[in-house]
Amino acid sequence: MRQGSLPLLLIAAVAAAAVSAAPASTLSGPSRPVTVPVGDRGHAVDLPDTDPRVQRRVTGWAPEQVAVALSAAPTSAWVSWITGDFQMGGAVKPLDPSAVGSVVRYGLAADSLVHEATGESLVYSQLYPFEGLQNYTSGIIHHVRLQGLEPGTRYFYRCGDPSIPDAMSDVHAFRTMPAVGPKSYPGRIAVVGDLGLTYNTTSTVEHMVRNQPDLVLLLGDVCYANLYLTNGTGTDCYSCSFANSTPIHETYQPRWDYWGRYMEPVTSSIPMMVVEGNHEIEEQIDNKTFASYSTRFAFPSEESGSFSPFYYSFDVGGIHFVMLASYADYNRSGAQYRWLEEDLVKVDRSVTPWLIAGWHAPWYTTYKAHYREAECMRVEMEELLYAYGVDVVFTGHVHAYERSNRVFNYTLDACGPVHISVGDGGNREKMATAHADDPGHCPDPASTPDPFMGGRLCAANFTTGPAAGRFCWDRQPDYSAYRESSFGHGVLEVKNDTHALWRWLRNQDLNADVAADEVYIVREPDKCLAKSSRLLAY
What burial class does residue 91 get, using C-beta atoms within 10 Å of its C-beta: 0-12 exposed, 13-18 middle, 19+ buried? Predict the structure, then answer.
């Protein structure tokens, strides 16, 4: 061997390794299906109310549970918080929202909060008209919209009531999203579902924060308050433990406050956008539902024209996000579908090239739990989303991770969206019931009436488990690219108007930069948007 050839060989080997280690690309066509065997499921046990991270740390009217959410455009944002403590008991008297003001003072420096905005305040109650059950009424929940902000700018703020001693928060800070346009994108978007408030949750959140996201998408099932009775007794599976012994599906609403307190270091500095899941339904007196979800969070509902907390849209740089509701009417004659049509027709892909959708229940999952549970929603809405060229769909619900190849109507399609299910945020495990020892059996997807389709037979398998690690076939279908039953979260990095890097990170991988699954999602607008235009013409 000639002198000097070894270094050249080493350089060539390193280069080859670098090439082989590069993420796959959707431009190369469908990935070969990969299934990773069930591994470490972590510590899916709820944080107790004695944990200092969930206990109330303020007194009087001082704000807590501070959170930032986006408005429809980067020039506006919402700040939310709670003052006063909740009440539990047989008879509860709501606090008076007018007792304390809703004020945010903000500016470009911590010592120069020269701007002021005011907003609204409200309380909600969770009431059960049955003897022996405990009722709940919240602290005062405040929502203030900041307007006239500069995109891509760090703002400092305090919230509360400056007219009351010790009723203003500490100084927090957040960064607005990049200006709307095809050359402008946030650095990292964290995507997580079914977060809960377990020790797994703490691992996920710590891991997520180390990745320094600019925005967090939470795809439903927030704190699992409905896995508890009103006396605070919890379970992994409500229907298994309590269904035959309670007159209504109870909840323990303080879990919401615990979650808000634990998450405040994140939500007060990183905008978080939330959509509802099935664990937010929370039925109470007079068949009222979703009271906590629709009251605690701020949504760009009015700004995006939906006027609903369940579905809305917003722009982040060159991305138009559409958040949809799995648990509201999605019939083609319903309000959500009509709003979606109106929203999509207004999207200018020369301004926001990327179109990303999110909701809770996945359309494409090959796990046994929740298999084709959202089939009716898919039947109603998939064609519309495909026609407008949706690039990526994020969902949760299934307590495991799965990424699809580009797919439309269960068929590989180079112009279909990539569906990514990230319901592995940290939730409590569900108990194994039907089909527990038959992983090769899938329920009939046409055997259960769908409530939003006039009782039409369309979806199936509202089972309680096993929630992860069981699949519907011995052979993974070709539209499923990667699936693994581990806890974690995902990060989306949109690089330009055609390329985005998706990375899924498991909790057991302590290095925040190590991805178990990663792929470049590549748009082909010349081919796919032209195809979409032809579909819309019909």
Answer: exposed
Q: Catalytic residue positions?
A: 370
Domain that holds residue 339: 188-220+310-537
Q: Is residue 11 part of a domain?
A: no
Residue 485 domain-assigned?
yes
Q: If you average pLDDT over every residue of the chain, what do you get?
A: 88
Distances (CA, A) of 322 to 151, 274, 390: 20, 12, 10
Rounded CA-CA distance 472/469 in Å is: 10
Percent of the chain with pLDDT over 70: 85
CA-CA-CA-CA torsion sign (168, 298, 120, 278): negative
Number of domains in the chain: 1
Rg value, the chain, Cα: 23
Does some domain include residue 20? no
Please give the span between the terminal C-alpha atoms of the chain, in angstroms, as a whole number. 68
* CATH of residue 350: 3.60.21.10
pTM of the model: 0.91
Identify the segments of the chain with pLDDT beneath 70. 1-21, 39-42, 429-474, 512, 530-538
Question: In this structure, what token pair is assigned to residue 372?
Answer: 């084709």
Q: What is the pLDDT of residue 40?
A: 63
Q: In this predicted structure, what is the pLDDT of residue 44?
A: 80
Q: Is 437 within a domain? A: yes
